[in-house]
Amino acid sequence: MKIYTRTGDKGTTSLLGGTRVAKHDLKIESYGTVDELNAWIGLLRDSASAQLGDVLLHSIQNNLFVIGSHLALEEGSDIKLPELPAECITELENAMDAMDAKLEPLKNFVLPGGNPIVSYAHLARTVCRRAERRLAALMEEEKVDVNLLIYLNRLSDFLFMASRHLTKELSAEERVWKP
């Protein structure tokens, strides 16, 4: 099977269900950003699974695929997709609470950096925030399960906590913003 189809050569792509839309359509931007985020989580998983937990990072990647599939589905389609697990938001909250219990209280904004792996977490966080913004805009145009947005919001918080946790675990310097 060839990977190229030539069907997108004129700037359109298909949604799940067959409808063709422009490659810059907000749905495509939304799930494309979630896909980009998943790639950053993959890099983070390759680099920091020992510090963050491979099972948790793998679960996050699976959840992002579920979100992406829902965003790729054309509105009104009867295609059945896997649901975002109900406990996945709690899973992120529990992981954040466990990391937070081991960290000094935050009194200033943190500047990204200190170690390449910490920077991966910050990059994933900023892409997650962009995915969240794209999804919020899409929700103004069509019906989308609000749990997808809640998950991305919680995931960006998790990635921030992960960056702080990694800073500590890797003995990196946490640099704060001093205006």
Brief rundown of the structure:
With 179 residues, this protein is mainly α. It has helices at residues 26-52, 54-72, 88-100, 116-139, 146-169, and strands at residues 12-14, 20-22.
Q: What descriptive keywords fit this protein?
A:
two-stranded antiparallel ribbon, Hypothetical Protein Ta1238, Chain: A, single chain, 5 helices, 179 residues, mainly alpha, elongated
Q: Kindly state the mean pLDDT as a whole number?
A: 95
Classify the beta-strand content into a percent band: under 5%
The CATH C-level name is Mainly Alpha
Q: Flag low-confidence runs.
A: none
Q: Could you say what the CATH topology is called?
A: Hypothetical Protein Ta1238, Chain: A
Corresponding CATH architecture: Up-down Bundle
Number of strands: 2
Fourth-tier CATH superfamily name: Cobalamin adenosyltransferase-like
Largest sheet: 2 strands, antiparallel
Number of discrete helical segments = 5
What percent of residues adopt helix (DSSP H or I)?
55-70%
Tally of distinct domains: 1
Strand order in the sheet with the most strands: 1-2
- The gross shape turns out to be elongated
- How far apart are the first and last residues' alpha carbons, in Å? 56 Å
Radius of gyration: 18 Å
The arrangement of helices and strands along the chain is EEHHHHH
Q: What structural class do you assign from the helix and strand content? A: mainly alpha
Task: Give me the oligomer status.
Answer: single chain
